[in-house]
Protein 1
Amino acid sequence: MPGLPFEQGPIRPVDEADSLLIRTTRGCPWNRCTFCSLYDNYKFSLRPVDDIKKDILAARDYFNGHSFETCFLQDGDSFVMGTKDLIEVLTALKQAFPTLKRISSYGRAQTMVKKSAQAIKDIHDAGLNKLYCGMESGSEKVLKLVKKGITQASIIQSAAMAKEAGMETTQFIIMGLGGKELSSDHALETAKVLNQTNPDQIRLLTIGVKEGSGLDRQMAEGQFHLPGEAEMISEQRLMLENLEGITSHYANHHGIDLLLEVKGQLPEDKKTLLGILDRFLSLDKAGQIHFILGRRLGYYRRLSDMENSLSRDFVQKQADKLMASGQDPEILFHDLRKKNV
Ligand code: SF4
């Protein structure tokens, strides 16, 4: 937000829409994932603790007694701060905003495993009680392909340390990240890691390749073949089917996802969620194209929205035009999807 008397980073998780945002670092210390261009315009730096503390006081004065219950520490990885510094910031934050119940941050698995279990516990006890982890995939092959810089082992170890310390954990998964070739490996290995980590929340995203990104170049060089929308729903089905013995809340919750109604508590809702994916997959090709187009143009949010005859007739006219144009529908779907990246 321009004009604020304290620094703000460019992004926050969807679930932190009402949170106080305090910037502890600028950019991402890794910044090499081929699918990510979030922090391309930010050179990574640790902010001096005194500057962050000044921001906390400026935010307190600016919000003039607003009782925030949640706070998100920006940008890409607050765990890269020295443990003592991070605890000093958390202590100042809790003093300035005593109503805070939840303080969260992104944490890179590879950074977290460099800290001891005791350090993670101390950070939790100082107030950081929620971890957002962008594991994206549990497949070693996919993690390597997209230069994620983390491993199955570091994801599992960091998640275990966070849970042991008492932190709530959210894992982000990107459907389609393995391309067509690694789709099954991506689904099965991700399920395997999720089964071992049992995060409190599993949040799905769908791949959208930004122009000029590393993944865009990998596509141009033939190293990555973008799966179609229905292929990614099949991939998700395979992953979800293989989630066993966990108690996570599972959600497609970002505008970039096709089936936003696939959202529920595991294990009790698993059958219902699989049923929604199956309902989409059982549509014939023309029906799938119709729904995807309606969803990507903003006329549909749920499969049942196709029962509205007004919307249905309008979307069908657009679908007929698309098919008559000879354009590959997946190219249009990806272009529309990318607007949410
Ligand atoms: S995906 Fe996360 S770790 Fe990778 S470059 Fe982007 S912010 Fe950094």
Protein 2
Amino acid sequence: MRILLTGTNGQVGAALQPLLAKHGTVIAPSRAEFDLSKPETLAERLDSLRPDLVINPAAYTAVDRAEDERELAFLVNAKAPEIVAEWAAQHRVPLVHFSTDYVFDGSGDKPWREDSSTNPLSVYGASKLAGDTAIQAAGGPHLIARTSWVYAAKGANFLRTIARLAGERKELRIVADQIGAPTTASAIADAIAGIVLPNASDLNALFVRSGGVVNLVCAGETSWHGFASAIVAGLKSRGAELAAETIVPIATADFPTKAKRPGNSRLDLSRLKDRFGLTTPAWQDALAVELDNFVSLRRTPANS
Ligand SMILES: NC(=O)c1ccc[n+]([C@@H]2O[C@H](COP(=O)([O-])OP(=O)(O)OC[C@H]3O[C@@H](n4cnc5c(N)ncnc54)[C@H](OP(=O)(O)O)[C@@H]3O)[C@@H](O)[C@H]2O)c1
């Protein structure tokens, strides 16, 4: 099987690449070779790459910057997925794509289901939702995995930001009224590989049967404050010498950002279990694994 995998320098793409490579030929073009900001070039690229499966974790993910770069965010997150999905539909090639909790407005306190009403608060969320809608409209076999709060030992993410700040400051002030599930890129990759690889010969039917969208996050919930506290405690228990002594919970209103973020980012995981037979690790267990990776990478800084 020829698998086209985008975004292999990103968190999810990097975690997926080795898992997929065990089972097929992974075509992993660089950004220059498969540039989602140039959607008009993509159909021709796909014609020449001839994948049997497309997995597209590449995205414009700079949530605050997107407020000033609306056009670029929509090109990469909406127009490019539309073109890829149209090509995939025409060729009956299954497409796996990734979406976000930021398609929801964060109201209430119930976990969002795959069919809950969307109402993004930010340009990033709107651009991702437009991508989801375009993929659905293209009508080909697809799976859109909705995830949240993604991090890994490498990359630009909350774990690494907190580790850095905790090394520098005695006190951290972290938002405590946004609730969601921190999710490791490797938990996402394991689940996608667990869906795609055993069903490779029948993916189109599986994707149609499954409804095309599935929530995919680690189990459990916390706030950014809870997540930061667990990171700092986990680093200290692994021998890190940190300046941070207190982590103060603050309100979103006390930490203004350019893009608005949802308060309730809980995602319901029943469909993942019922239609794919999969569960994900508790966010605390996934964090423990990732902290081990992070600490061992720090001991060999050339790798981080
Ligand atoms: N990060 C999160 O917290 C989060 C939360 C919810 C959903 N998601 C979704 O999950 C998916 C994976 O996210 P991630 O965290 O793995 O993202 P990431 O680490 O930010 O990586 C994004 C990847 O997209 C590539 N990319 C950006 N612009 C591109 C372009 N114009 N053409 C081709 N490639 C381009 C980047 O390439 P370069 O390496 O060249 O920059 C990078 O490899 C995305 O769909 C994202 O929207 C992420």
